[in-house]
Amino acid sequence: MAAAVSRRRSNPTGAGAEAVPANGHTPVLLDSVIAALEPRTGAVYIDGTLGAGGYTSALLEATDCIVWAIDRDPDAIARNSELAATYGGRLHLISGHFGDMQTLLADRGVSAVDGVTLDLGVSSMQIDDPARGFAFSQDGPLDMRMDQAGPSAADLVNTVDESELADIIHGYGEERLARRIARAIVAARAEAPIETTGRLADIVRAVATPRKRSRKGRENKIDPATRTFQALRIKVNDELAELERGLGAAEAILKPGGRLAIVSFHSLEDRRVKVFLRQRSGNEGRGSRHRPEVTARHAPAWRLLGRRAIRPSDAEMARNPRARSARLRVAERTDAPSWGPIGEETAA
Length: 348
Ligand SMILES: C[S@@+](CC[C@H](N)C(=O)[O-])C[C@H]1O[C@@H](n2cnc3c(N)ncnc32)[C@H](O)[C@@H]1O
Hints:
The chain has 348 residues and is an alpha/beta fold. The chain starts with 5 loop residues before the first strand and ends in a 15-residue tail after the last strand. Helix content is 40%, strand content 15%. Bound molecules: S-adenosylmethionine.
């Protein structure tokens, strides 16, 4: 399990100081995730977001099970090679995307599993390394690529036209000042390409910092660059499409009775998980606009375990401020056939 030894460091989200384990990442909602998966001897699990290996090692410690652990960041795979050696044939590391979990495991001879967990977003190791370009609190290259390949955040902000940039910042950052920020970015890049996190953060802060700070309100404690950085990260890594692919793939690969446990960190993710599970468990509210005709054609593929998301305790949030926005949703696969990928539901 994640080492208990801690050191103090400043939190790059601006949320104050945080105790972190020696391996750099404190797993969020760990006990609830493991309890939800109910690990059994001989069972097979997918950890689609290996990170520092917190969930994976807890599963392997809980019982004599097998874990296939996936991460799109080559650094995460490399840093867990010792863990794989420790657990011998019980832990298999796969470099890839969780949206491809069905193919990745089929290529390795596995067609069905007993549990899938996803802990969305980036790890503390990724955020804390200025060279990865995720954080606005430390200067570094404007990168943000989990895969360490493909177009970077700098490529995006220096090439996309103003209205598309505004749509990205508004859609993925839920930033109401998106148009103003996009205009400022386009003006700044006309002077010189935007290459660093520090310069981008300054450009955003210059137009998005409230003139007057109200005496109360969490809003004002958040760095004005937060939402723009979130939006660019989601876009660079295509995170929402990847989440939808992951949900469809988990449904296809889980055995009847198999469990899905997903931790999300912002409403754009959690909303997608909630709608997917409600729709495909037959628990959609009346009047839903989410393709009711599709729902009517299929038997429920999921049974919801709890109608509401599980939130971290006050103690966990105090210990690990990064856990504050976390939401865990859990569901169990029924024996009904999979509906197919989101947006390509089968005729049934
Ligand atoms: C929040 S961390 C996971 C931490 C992990 N649960 C732990 O306890 O150490 C998220 C990890 O998932 C990876 N990741 C994010 N999206 C992914 C995707 N679509 N496919 C594979 N890995 C992904 C990131 O690279 C990062 O290492």
